[in-house]
Design goal:
Mean pLDDT: 82
Number of domains: 2
Radius of gyration: 24 Å
Largest sheet: 8 strands, antiparallel
Structural class: alpha+beta
Number of helices: 9
Helix content: 10-25%
Low-confidence stretches: 353-357, 373-392, 411-456
Distance between the termini: 34 Å
Order of helices and strands: EEEEEHEEEEHEHEEHEEEEEEEHEHHHH
Number of strands: 20
Shape: globular
Strand order of the largest sheet: 5-4-3-9-8-7-6-10
Length: 458
């Protein structure tokens, strides 16, 4: 069976990227209106903006006419794996991995915070790798997109591999570093029945490396069309921040990161003391011509790109969040370069800030580049965004974030009354017993545990 990433029209493509729209999206220009699609109709959460290897070099992310729940690049790519086992599949091998199992609903927090599909065929010497962020996906039996993945935004990258051996190299990295939770796999291809230690076979049986040694791994590989990709990964015993201490220093880049941010965010300075990683506030598709925006709170993406201050621009699509709890989870990202796609993503990120710290080497180099090019001094990102556009986008997403926060905090009248009554009783007890106010502080210690629990499945 010939395997390949497939585009929206069902044709083989070297690679594709998709950013699924959040079902909770709102209109960019208003405070409360639900986002609508061009031509009418509300956002459901299966829509996506799309870009692939065949897009024009000066092109941009485009809202697809397809929907993840029934057609387009994602089902076109995965449907061959649902073929009934037989002669046509005897050389085929694949496995689905996700820390959130769609079959039984369990969450495996001890395995990698990693989600995707690795598929290969020994007969046709072909394969593809899907890196994605959607929990409880793909499904068993037949293709479908889970309703649980619709409310929040998701990112996906699919790459056509040049041969089955590249799948072996990726599997070897995953076995040691990403340590995926494989919940569904094909039978072992006849070609590998006598190779029980092949990493592809081991992962198909949901086996990973044993021990607690820290692991980081960087694997360069090419797509079938020759595009250079770099898979960067670490295991849970490494114990440092993935973006600050591995991705940024590896690429030697300042990074803008858009991930599931429902936990404490690490400090921005990289371990090399030169580069920084900055968390974004959300996404606004208005620069692409679509009045759709959502805050980071509704974004389950695992996306990082080079900051606008950089001269070389990378895109990283993976499965690790830019949060402190992720230091104790395995996972990775895949980095590559495509200027048109980077420009599109950079234009829709909200809350981009100037990264360069005063007196840092990066600031000195940036100043030198500006001086050489004759540009006026100013914020590093100013040239990349039309005047006023960044502020307008930031305000739109900020208002949506504020409304959501207010909705969570606003108590009902009965709850408010109950709290008031409780406060009076508590005050009287303190007055009688003369208990110092400091004794109430220990209750706050539970907060980190709640934050960690909320992000365990992110």
């Amino acid at each position: 069976m010939q395997l390949s990433a497939m585009d929206d029209n069902g044709k083989p493509v070297d690679w594709w990227f998709a950013y699924k729209v959040a079902g909770k999206s709102e209109a960019s220009e208003t405070d409360t209106a639900k986002a609508t699609l061009p031509g009418g109709g509300g956002v459901k959460g299966t829509e996506y903006v799309y870009f692939d290897a065949n897009s024009p070099q000066d092109g941009k992310l485009t809202l697809s006419s397809c929907r993840f729940d029934n057609n387009g690049a994602l089902p076109n790519t995965l449907n061959p794996l649902y073929t009934e086992p037989g002669l046509s599949t005897q050389h085929l091998g694949w496995f689905f991995y996700n820390d959130e199992n769609p079959i039984n609903g369990s969450v495996n927090g001890s395995r990698g915070h990693t989600k995707g599909v690795l598929a290969f065929d020994m007969g046709t010497n072909s394969g593809f790798w899907l890196i994605q962020s959607t929990p409880k996906f793909p499904l068993k039996g037949k293709y479908g997109f889970p309703a649980t993945g619709m409310p929040n935004a998701q990112t996906l990258l699919c790459i056509t591999l040049p041969d089955a051996d590249t799948a072996r190299r990726i599997a070897a990295q995953m076995f040691a570093a990403q340590q995926p939770n494989v919940y569904l796999a094909s039978t072992v291809p006849v070609d590998l029945e006598s190779s029980p230690n092949d990493p592809r076979v081991l992962l198909m049986k949901n086996q990973i490396i044993t021990g607690n040694s820290p692991v980081t791994s960087i694997i360069p590989f090419n797509s079938k069309g020759g595009v250079k990709f770099t898979s960067i990964a670490k295991n849970k015993y490494w114990g440092l921040d993935f973006y600050n201490d591995l991705v940024g220093p590896t690429l030697k880049e300042n990074l803008d990161v858009e991930t599931w941010g429902h936990a404490k965010v690490p400090q921005p300075l990289d371990s090399d003391k030169i580069h920084t990683v900055v968390d974004m506030a959300g996404i606004d598709l208005n620069p692409l011509g679509y009045s759709i925006c959502w805050p980071e709170a509704n974004d389950h993406a695992k996306l990082a790109i080079s900051a606008r201050s950089e001269s070389v621009h990378f895109i990283c699509v993976g499965d690790i969040n830019f949060t402190v709890p992720m230091e104790k989870r395995s996972g990775g990202t895949v980095a590559f370069q495509c200027e048109a796609l980077w420009s599109s993503i950079s234009s829709v990120l909200v809350g981009v800030t100037t990264h360069l710290k005063a007196g840092s080497k990066a600031e000195t180099l940036q100043a030198a580049r500006r001086s050489a090019s004759g540009r006026a001094k100013g914020p590093a990102n100013a040239a990349a965004t039309p005047p006023g556009a960044e502020n307008a986008a930031t305000k739109a997403v900020a208002k949506q974030t504020a409304r959501q926060a207010a909705a969570k905090k606003a108590p009902t009248k009965k709850v408010a009354a109950k709290k008031a009554a409780t406060k009076k009783v508590a005050t009287k007890k303190v007055a009688v017993k003369k208990t110092p106010a400091k004794k109430a502080a220990p209750a706050k210690k539970k907060a980190p545990a709640r934050a960690k629990a909320a992000t365990a499945a992110g």
